[in-house]
Amino acid sequence: xxxxxxxxxxxxxxxxxxxxxxxxxxxxxxxxxxxxxxxxxxxxxxxxxxxxxxxxxxxxxxxxxxxxxxxxxxxxxxxxxxxxxxxxxxxxxxxxxxxxxxxxxxxxxxxxxxxxxxxxxxxxxxxxxxxxxxxxxxxxxxxxxxxxxxxxxxxxxxxxxxxxxxxxxxxxxxxxxxxxxxxxxxxxxxxxxxxxxxxxxxxxxxxxxxxxxxxxxxxxxxxxxxxxxxxxxxxxxxxxxxxxxxxxxxxxxxxxxxxxxxxxxxxxxxxxxxxxxxxxxxxxxxxxxxxx
Amino acid sequence: xxxxxxxxxxxxxxxxxxxxxxxxxxxxxxxxxxxxxxxxxxxxxxxxxxxxxxxxxxxxxxxxxxxxxxxxxxxxxxxxxxxxxxxxxxxxxxxxxxxxxxxxxxxxxxxxxxxxxxxxxxxxxxxxxxxxxxxxxxxxxxxxxxxxxxxxxxxxxxxxxxxxxxxxxxxxxxxxxxxxxxxxxxxxxxxxxxxxxxxxxxxxxxxxxxxxxxxxxxxxxxxxxxxxxxxxxxxxxxxxxxxxxxxxxxxxxxxxxxxxxxxxxxxxxxxxxxxxxxxxxxxxxxxxxxxxxxxxxxxxxxxxxxxxxxxxxxxxxxxxxxxxxxxxxxxxxxxxxxxxxxx
Lengths: 292, 343
Known about the structure:
The complex is a heterodimer. In chain A, a hairpin with a 2-residue loop joins β10 (about 240-250) and β11 (about 250-260). By secondary structure, chain A is of the alpha/beta class. In chain A, α1 packs parallel to α2 (about 40-45) and α5 (about 130-140) runs parallel beside α7. Helix content of chain A is about 40%, strand content about 25%. In chain A, the strands form 2 sheets. Chain A has a 6-stranded parallel sheet with strand order 3-2-1-4-5-6, with helices on both faces. In chain A, strands 8-7-9-11-10 form a 5-stranded mixed sheet. The model of chain A has no long low-confidence stretch (mean pLDDT about 95). The model of chain B has no long low-confidence stretch (mean pLDDT about 95). In chain B, α8 (about 240-250) runs antiparallel to α9. Chain B has an 8-stranded parallel beta barrel, surrounded by 6 helices. Helix content of chain B is about 45%, strand content about 10%. Chain B has 2 domains: about 10-270, Aldolase class I (TIM Barrel), CATH 3.20.20; about 290-340, Helicase, Ruva Protein, domain 3, CATH 1.10.8. By secondary structure, chain B is an alpha/beta fold. Chain B is built from 13 helices and 8 strands.
């Protein structure tokens, strides 16, 4: 039996999540929560047979028990997430947080998802799009040998970056850097984001530089990176190692491109797709545990 | 062109944009010596930071000899009249860096975004203004969009609290008419009390001519660099601009002989290689490519057996923007593979 879930937020991310979740073997999307009755996302969700409310989380809470909702994805804003989480966790719902609120621990599926399973976590956070795209590569190096410093550069299409991220771009760089340290395993980290307005929009690109503490073990690192790419491809098939690893002294550089599935978001918005795909993957792993 | 009786504020770039050709390796002593000499020459504003602005220290852009904070703490207290500015690119630097620079005593924060992405500057411009600093919005690669689009972005920066907005020719691609079209449109659209600035690169030898076109449209500030030390073929050469402004009767407060001496005696001897319009710098201007890519393309070309000109042209074709230095090795690897395959 699939675990029943709610998607909070009826914007681009929430709508893409609904489409992905409808294909899931483990998750059954039941509710979509918005705040604007005229929103395209709510209309679409209703069209796909889901229950909707435009009353925010308060419109969902009375139905949580009756509809057996056990997981909620929050695709709203960091500001709204605290309240959403408080209300839904009180109903025993596991929160998967796609906002930068980061109340719960970071989760990057191929790196640390297994560590969260069974811990009865009530809230996990998906870091940032740049984090989801790059932390697996840093972890692929740091599981071979110590990484003194890691630096990631995420280049994204202007059209794929919404007003929330733009108004607080520092939150992106800080949260991503913290994720690269805590989950990627680098002693220190820096994150850079570059927004490119080219038309047609460019595919999300990510460069990952690691400085290893000792001479890099080229063979082991290369193998580890290829293995990790395959892990990520299980939920983001368009996660492509374009070039590298390049070894230059203690520098190890990897050049990635992330193409989305093009469900609701366009294919170039791999940055958004990797968030929704990682969130769904996370929910599926928890769902398997809940039903086992 | 009659500019007689006009006045402009000159802003020296040699210790910030000049960090690019120096691979960010200007020593603390050199920073202090050049800044002090600029101050003595009457330069009202001097920019000091990593070439890519506050927080630019990175594998991607290069690690500098000293931290931004070390440079600023060494230079700011030595200035008798000159004010010091710091550049900040949202996405690279954060408000934490901004607060640090303010604490070091900078008078001016310049928040730089790609010309179409002004809305990422809101929090930084807002904070700079709140801290009471002279706050500049800096729209890079302004040649890539038409004047009316640039105006819309400039208005955003103005609305966030910028008291001055720049049209920045990061690629040194603009011709004087391009400058006139943009600066004229900005002057007509922004509040009369909002100042305007122009930042040129000399890749097509247009630095001085473009600066004059900007002044003719009402520019209040002009960026230039002693001996032109800056990315690509450098910035508008300050000592040349000063001489031209003197002949045209534009007031600026900088002493011509002293600035000539700063350029000749202090800055030229610091250069690792001559900052000049070589074929790569020329192609930056011609193809409209971000000037800081120059040395990265030269290094990648050497490492992978390619032509740096080919790399730069391809970067232009792909509409890359400032900050995408990581694209250069990636692209060079693709080109080397295509070459090996006989493609």
